[in-house]
Amino acid sequence: MGNGKVIKVSGPLVVAEGLSDANMFDVVRVGRDRLIGEIIEMRGDQASIQVYEETAGLGPGDEVATTGAPLSVELGPGLITTIYDGIQRPLETIRDLVGSSIQRGIDVPSLDRKKKWKFEPIAKVGDAVIGGDIIGHVQETAAVDTKIMVPPTLSGTIVSIKSGEFTVEETVAELKNADGTIVPLSMMQRWPVRQGRRYKAKLSPTVPMITGQRNVDTLFPIARGGTAAIPGPFGSGKTVVQHQLAKWSDVDIVVYIGCGERGNEMTDVLREFPELKDPRSGESLMKRTVLIANTSDMPVAAREASIYTGITIAEYFRDMGYAVAILADSTSRWAEALREMSGRLEEMPGEEGYPAYLTSRLAQFYERAGRVICLGSEDREGSLTAIGAVSPPGGDISEPVSQATLRIVKVFWSLDSSLAYARHFPAINWLNSYSLYEDRLQQWYIDNISPDFPKLRASAISLLQQESELNEIVQLVGVDALSPQDRLILEEARMLREDFLQQDAMSDTDAYCPSEKQFQLLRLILSYYDMGREALAKGANMNALFSIPARDNIGRAKNESNYQKAFAEIESEMRAQISELIAKGGEQL
Amino acid sequence: MIKEYRTIQEIAGPLMLVQNVEGVTYGELAEIRLQNGEIRRCKVLEVEGDNALVQLFESSTGINLANSSVRFLGHGIELGVSADMLGRVFDGLGNPIDNGPELLPDKRLDINGLPMNPAARAYPSEFIQTGVSAIDGLNTLVRGQKLPIFSGSGLPHADLAAQIARQAKVLDNSSQFAVVFAAVGITFEEADFFINDFRRTGSIDRTVMFMNLANDPAIERISTPRMALTAAEYLAFDQGMHVLVIITDITNYAEALREVSAARKEVPGRRGYPGYMYTDLASMYERAGRREGCDGSITLIPILTMPEDDKTHPIPDLTGYITEGQIILSRDLYRKGLRPPVDVLPSLSRLKDKGIGEGKTRADHSGVMNQLFAAYARGKDAKELMTILGEAALTDIDKLYAKFADEFENRYVSQGYDTNRSIEETLSIGWELLSILPKNELKRIKPQFIEKYFPEKSEE
Q1: Who among B26, B114, B393 is closest to A59 (CB)?
Q2: What integer pLDDT is reported at residue A481 of this predicted model?
């Protein structure tokens, strides 16, 4: 491969000449430290290179060598539980090599080359296989069984297959393809990150991704294979919501990308996830998680790549037939990285200095999500759900990144700073947020939770809506001007907000709320409204109705673990107290 | 052999173009020798072929295209560090200005530092008692956190910062503590206030100061915070000290950054600040933290004045996205006479949950904190309603909340700059205030704590 020479250095952008053999988007090595870069523009024999590491110390005349291959990730056993940087270098290995700072030009393989994995074959000699077929598997962690697949581009007949312990590079099987050549297969594949992995067909989402968050599951559900955005100003709890989803979603694999965010947040995930138990499998949550970290002090060009690295890893697990969720925090930082490179390339800026291709790049990312029929002869079904946080400047979502994202995603969880100031968490605004999957998922809720579910959900939303209208009147004329029936709506909406929507992420008892419990709790809270309305119609005293002791118990109900029994007790207590009020009529207590 | 170039082609604002250079690398430090022998420093911003674009750190006055010469030094900007820095005062470029002896550096460190590997960070979780209730009780600071103070022109952020520097301590008092103070473009009076305060309390001996005052070259300001953080990293991670870094004022830093960006004719982002300002600020703020296997820590308190008290201005906005919370000072509260005028509702410490609770502060801390926040928020709403419709429009319970909000501001927040409250005191004031409300309103506190701590009203 031809070598070039650097002629210009400007921050992460390096221009080199003499690279006429190189291809667009080839990975190159720059300078003595062999810094990793990628060709993003070519003019004549000059190539513009975005360098993924700090470029201080580079100068004209330094050598540039192309590797002849586009930026790719290594896929195979060993991904789970690992924390990678934006270009898939394992950060824990780097720490063991060079200490607590990240130095430049470090070359370590993404997957451990020495570790042996126990490969158990499934395919037999003589089997005809096509790309995507599973030939064997590795129990990677207690929670994840990694399937070893035929790479998407190959097909043929298996001529040998082994069983036992192998490293990721060793041959575990051999394949004879159509023209008779023998191809050795190892457990590792490579895939270029900017290209989506192939699948047979895309399907519409019909099953919700259950997250254990009442705001999400009950009010604004997301489907497996769906896309969602969480925009919000700083301090509104975007990252906490993302962490909650990463912790409690009922998926098989979680890929968490910390894109241009705080180092301590990644450390938090690294330290906390191993301690937490998956409510379904009982295994540690870390055992299903892959982390990608490009913290805000790490080089900006690698931030652009980190999103693609993450989603390619997620697609690999989707191809095994798993339900995968990818959480990107935050896509705004990724867009800013695009803007910075675009500025240095002296491209014509679009809105607010962002490049004109911002929308199409964002759309390409989110479109890689979906529920699909995987490659291979057994028609496995896999799903990839993508959830991106957006950090709009000043919390104003009229800015380009938020707007471009909202045009693509189907679920919008709008975080609100005024809710956050009142310490209403999660600060998801119930009036602005929406989920376009609601109708499509309704049948699932009817079949799996209760036929009453859509009705209860609708009345909760309507009560919250009425509350905001009534509050406008209260602001003008005071609460005394309202009828008792309207006062009851305000009280009921307050209970919905405080006792249902608020969910403490730090709580041991309430951080995860099973679907059935969500439904029962909602029913319990709404039953107060039904009983209360009846009581008021029958002439019960309003103030007495608002201060019945059972309401305190509803306030604590969300923390009950044996909820079936507790809720039933609260309900009968409440019924008794309200009938007593009706019996007394309008008397004060 | 270092070559001297007499090929300065142009000077415009803080930028200078040097031609026909050889072997110059990006980020390299260079020296300009003026005809009168004076030496000034600059840094390579871009190299293209044999042209080097450099950024001056000092003023360009007196540089002559024909007679001044440039030497490229082959390394980036470095700071000589040693434990003897404690008690010393340096200018914005790291030269001693206290008439003391030259420093004998233990080593020289690149002031840009290296990114910290997230896998090697230790999560900050040790409570720092600042003695300020609004911080300790509600927006708790922990070791290794970066918690800025968002202030406005004319608000007493300096008093609060000095109070924190004076009073901050951890509950197990075993390790060494140091303060690194960076003045970035502030006035002499403000800087003098800090120096006098450090002197008055005797903390000057464990303080390192970097001074770039308002009349020093604006362009120097880009290096000053990095000098301070480099010194802090050395003290924390080489010497094992717990370092509190105070940088004031980040707004001046951002303006210097904008000046360089404008001179380079870059496409501006919001309000003319460069598009990479987020990354640039992050490369400073993220240097705070703790490392696994190191005793020391860097806790960072940057101070910034919000232009027009606008929290959505790019400087506070981008800062808030990087730092782990913010302490916001409010002009309204200041006018009401609250000292310090901390507006607790929009203030936030993201790391508080890991630093409070049993074994760190007290088991009821988290519940009391949430209840105080919720009650104060409701009390403020009630007071707002009261100003529109009069007190009669409030329900009985809302009247109690309004009373709570007033008492909370006067007794909890407004404690003065010389009161040093222990966490126990802060918590018990919190309980006293909560006892204004009926017990069944305290939904956010676990019943066993209400039983244990709720003060019984004897006088009523």
Answers
A1: B26
A2: 86
A528: nearest Cα among A468, A578, A568 = A578
CB A324 within 8 A of CB A317: yes
Task: For A362-398, give the DSSP string.
Answer: HHHHHHT-EEEEPSSTT--EEEEEEEEEE--GGG-TT
Of A92, A101, A349, the CB nearest to B114: A101
Give tens-digit pLDDT for A293-352. 999 989 888 899 999 999 999 999 999 999 999 999 989 999 999 988 888 888 888 888
Residue A477: its chain B contacts at CB < 8 A? 389
Mean pLDDT score of chain A: 92
**CA atoms of A531 and A511, how far apart (whole Å):** 30
What's the start-to-end Cα distance of chain B, in Å? Answer: 87
- Helix (H, G, I), strand (E, B), or coil: what is residue B242? strand
- Cα pseudo-dihedral A126, A131, A135, A136, rounded to 10: 170
Distances (CA, A) of B51 to A57, B15, B145: 16, 13, 42
Angle of helix A453-477 relative to helix A438-448, nearest 10 degrees, comes to 120
Cβ pair A104, A33 in contact under 8 A: yes
Instruction: Report yes or no: B156 and B329 within 8 Å, Cβ to Cβ.
Output: yes
Choose the mutation target among A33, A100, A510 for the interface with B, i.e. most B CBs under 10 Å. A100
| Distance of alpha carbon A13 from alpha carbon A354, whole angstroms | 17
E strand segments, A44-116: 46-51, 63-70, 72-75, 83-84
Write out residues in chain B with pLDDT < 50, as ranges. 459-460
pLDDT tens profile A3-42: 899 999 988 899 999 988 888 999 999 999 899 999 999 9
- Taking alpha carbons only, the member of A408, A381, A366 closest to residue A322 is A381
Please list, residue by residue across B119-154, b when 16 or more beta carbons sit within 10 angstroms of its beta carbon and e when fewer do: bbbbbbbbbbbbbbbbbbbbbbbbbbbbbbbbbbee
**What amino acid is encoded at A203 in this protein?**
L
The pLDDT value recorded for residue A107 is 85
A348 Cβ under 8 Å from any chain B Cβ: no
pLDDT tens per residue, range A236-246: 888 899 999 99
Instruction: Tell me whether residues A8 and B144 touch, CB distance under 8 A.
Output: no
**What are phi and psi for residue A69, nearest 5 degrees?**
-130, 150
E strand or H helix at B161: helix B157-167
Q: Is A24 helix (H, G, I), strand (E, B) or coil?
A: coil
Q: What share of chain A is helix, strand, coil (3-state, %, to 5)?
A: 35, 25, 40
pLDDT of residue B460: 41
**And the tokens for B195?**
């120096």
What H or E segment, with its residue span, contains residue B137? Answer: none
Query: B119, A106 in Cβ contact below 8 A?
Result: no
CA dihedral A473→A477→A479→A481, nearest 10 degrees, is -100
Contact (Cβ atoms closer than 8 angstroms) between residue A529 and residue A488: yes
DSSP secondary structure of A465-510: HHHHHHHHHHHHH-GGGS-HHHHHHHHHHHHIIIIII---TT-TTT
User: Is residue B329 a contact partner of residue B150, using CB atoms and an 8 Å limit?
Assistant: yes
Strand partners, A147: A137
> What crossing angle do the helices spanning A515-537 and A453-477 adopt, rounded to 10°?
50
Radius of gyration (Cα) for chain A, nearest Å? Answer: 28
What is the predicted ipTM? 0.88
Neighbours of B88 (CB within 10 A): 19
Strand partners, A292: A84, A257
Partner residues linked to A381 by β-bridges: A373
Query: What is the percentage of chain A residues whose pLDDT exceeds 70?
Result: 99
pLDDT on residue B264: 85
**Which residues, numbered 260 to 279 in chain A, qualify as contacts with chain B under a Cβ-Cβ cut-off of 8 Å?**
260, 262-264, 266-268, 270-271
